[in-house]
Amino acid sequence: MSNPDPAPDSAAVHDALIRDQFTRQAGIFASVPELHSAEALALLVDAAHPGPDHTTLDIACGPGSVVVAMAKRARHATGLDATQAMLDQARALAEAEGRKNVTWAEGNVYALPFQEQSFDIVTCRFAFHHFARPLAALAEMVRVCRPGGVVLVSDAVASDDKAKADAFNKMERHRDPSTVEFLTLGALCNLFAAADLPVPAQKFFQVPDEAGTAVARSFPDDAAAVLRLFEEAVPGDGMGLNTRREGNKILFAYPAVILTATKPVKPPAR
Ligand SMILES: C[S@@+](CC[C@H](N)C(=O)[O-])C[C@H]1O[C@@H](n2cnc3c(N)ncnc32)[C@H](O)[C@@H]1O
Asked: Do residues 61 and 88 lie in contact, with contact meaning Cβ atoms separated by under 8 Å?
């Protein structure tokens, strides 16, 4: 598996962008019902299938809703994130829900501060598009998962139509400058193969959104320019997000997937 490191400078700059965006987004992001409703969380928890003896880890856990949902069915759930303001939201959520079987860690997905084979289930939702080295992040998830355990990645996917995928990624990088790239379904599945995981099970869902709300949730340099990219995508669904006008609003939906694989008990022969 080879995945060359970016220059340290660019990694440090990107880490700073992540912390800047998500420190500012933390409160707003934690209150998006499409992401944190019981229904949205059940999709992920059902796919990961935690049991009462299981320990779970959610990387890039943000405001902790996935961790708290897992903790309701698992023995213990851990969440890790690079942004302290997100972890503050997570702690507040666990406290509000009276969850004691949770642990929070500040850290980076590329160097998880856990021993090999520490968890039964390792998950990551809506964060791979922020990773400059998605394969390195997935390899870390695999490392800390026990053989026979579950590795789950969920994210929005880019269209197989390259022009639409490029338009989607261009809009997202303008909307949230910490975005690196939304991958296609095929590219996400290729990461599983490169990380020595079997072909993942796939579950599809949509995250409905509205352009003005999406722009207000992040901190773009030029909000008007982002809205123009949405406008331009209405005819012909130019971003592959079913972007459409309804009254004075532009509606769209993120096409998203949950990919789940069991870590092999023995690594495949090479
Ligand atoms: C869009 S939020 C998703 C939060 C959460 N997974 C969810 O679905 O609600 C992305 C999160 O990834 C975190 N993140 C991005 N890059 C990271 C990295 N390299 N290491 C740790 N956390 C990272 C950010 O701090 C942010 O909280």
From this structure: no
